[in-house]
Structures are given as C-alpha cells and as structure tokens.
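Quick question: what would this complex look like in 3D?
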Amino acid sequence: MRLVKVIEGDTELLVPEHEKGPGPRATDTPVFYNPAMEMNRDTSISLLRYLDPRGMRILDSMAATGARGIRIATELEPRAVVLTDISDEAVNLILHNSRGLDVQVHKQSVEEHLLANQYRYDYVDIDPFGTPVPYLPVALRFIRRNGVLAVSATDTSVLCGTYPKKCMRVYSAAPMNNWCRHENGLRILIGHIAREAARYDRGVRPLLSYYDGHHFRTYLRVVAGAGKANESIRKLDTYRFGDIDWSLSGEIGPMWSGDLSSDDIVKGMLPLGKLTEDILALWRGEAGMSPFFYETSTLARHLKQPPPPLKDIILRLNSAGYLTVRTHFSPTAFKTEGNTETVLDAFRG
Ligand SMILES: C[S@@+](CC[C@H](N)C(=O)[O-])C[C@H]1O[C@@H](n2cnc3c(N)ncnc32)[C@H](O)[C@@H]1O
C-alpha cells in the first residue's frame, strides 16, 4: 500500500494514495480514505467542540486510517479516545498515525467492543460502508445515558428510492424517488434509528442531520426512558406526495417528522475547514422548519412557466409574512411556512 501525507485540520496523517476530487472514489486500497469526507470530519470536530468534549469518552468505531478519532484526540481535549477497526491493515495504520497520542487502538468489531465495554462511551461514531443498520442495536443499547450517536449512511440510492424494496427490507419504510428524495431518505434513516432506540426504551433527539451529495449524516442525543422512547415514536409519520407538494398520512415512510437539527447546536457551531460559514448558514436557516420543500423546477413544470430567480420567490414569501429559507437539500429549492396556494402566487409573481 503506497501511503501519502495529508493534513486535515491541525492533524497530519498518513493515508493510502487516493484519487483527488469531489465525490466517492472506488478504492482498491486495503485501508479506506476518502478526502471528500473531510467536511464530514470537520463537522464532527466543530460539533464536539461546541458540546465541550472534555469529560467525554469517544469511540471512533470504524476508524480506517483513524482520521476522525485522531483528529478528535489532537484538536480537542476529550477524556478518552478509543479507535477500533476489524482490518489488520487499518489497525496498523491507526497505530502509526496515533504515535505519541494518548489513545487506545483495538482490532475489534464495534459489536464486540461495545458488548465488552457497556455504557462506557459518551460519543459513538458509526461510519460504515453502506448502511449503518446492522450496527445500530449494539450502539443504541450500550451508549451511555445522554450519549451522542453519530451515524453515516452511504446507501443513499436505497434511502432515496432507487431500490424501494430494499429500503423496505432494510429500513422497514417506503421511500420515494421524487424532488424531496434526499430529505425523505434522511428522515427514513432517523425514523429507523428512533424505532431501533425505542426497543431499548430510549429516545433520540437530533442535534444535527444533513445530506451532502454522497452520504447522510446524523448526530443524535440518545435519551433514556420509556417516556422518551414513546415521545420519539410519536414523531414518526407517513406522507403522500403530489406533483409539487405533500400531505400527511400516506404511503411514504414511516419517517422522522421532527426537527432534523437543533437550533442551539447549529447556531453555536463554528466554521472549520471544509465546513464553511455558507453551509452553517443553510443549516441554521432550516433548523426548526417543517418537513419538505418546494422545488422551483417542479413548480415551473406544473405552472408551465420559467422559474423566477429563487431569491425573488423567497423575498415575496417573506414579505407576505411567511418565513421562507433556502435548503441544503437542493440549491434550487426553498422551505416555507406558506401553503401551496401562497407558493404558487409567489411563483407567478
Ligand atoms: C467507511 S470506512 C470508515 C472511514 C473512517 N471513519 C474515516 O473517517 O475515514 C469503514 C471502516 O469500517 C471497518 N469495519 C467494517 N465493519 C466493521 C465492524 N463491524 N466493526 C468495526 N469496523 C468495521 C472497515 O474495515 C473500514 O475501515
């Protein structure tokens, strides 16, 4: 394996030689490293910094090169950092990258490790190839009270409705491949995690959730108690989509209908590396908005007229008293408190 030096944040790492450029890369290297996930790791650092990690025990359970856990140990001052991976090559590289740092490294699966270290971790990171579903039970069961569970999912085509039968098998939910597919997918993922947590009398509270082109990511506070679990389950809903809008109680879902992110968290997080002020501004605008958004291209098709500039629609709706914001799910879409009639009026100008 040919290794190259990279610097992420304040941390220098040796990683397998990789193709540069955006998007996920097919990799035949024995240890996984995706430079396009740097923003994902920058976000972990920014979020943990806001949460104050000093008393926290952190588990980077699928560490690969160790990039995330080593950055957390280097750039923050948590109480403890443990990195695990099932691959020999990965563990050797993590040991090399973490020389001189006060971290523990284990060649163990996340399942084995959490079973052996029950209720030890305040933060557990699950960053698998594809779906996180197989690893959720052990993580939800054995994370500490009020711990933070961070989950990535790269099976976006399943969650977004390209393979609806597979989504039903894996997530017990019906997706839809429409203009809102990325938000549907993220909400199906969180809905599944909420149902899985409820089996262990635990509820979930999203701190930050987003889609970024080739993966979903959600950070959830896992809260203990049957009441909290019931509260989370009440936030599951199904929806029906029409050509341009949606209504409650339909065939899509079940999915999480509550907030995707906490207002306090996104307001408190600071930009870092690839996590820019622009991205944070989008997340901040959307926090607290109801599910789903209007897409200008579908509205244009529906009304058979070219779309006005997005900023004009947003201005018109806000001036009419309906809070309206851009969404990170699509650069040509908006979320609004206005109803479809109001939106169509604003679109017509
Ligand atoms: C997508 S990579 C992780 C990337 C890494 N977190 C990063 O930020 O660069 C997935 C890693 O999980 C490891 N893995 C797969 N199954 C595992 C399991 N059950 N427990 C622990 N690690 C596992 C793989 O060997 C691989 O290194």
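Answer marked as accepted. Residues 162 and 179 are 13 Å apart (CA to CA).
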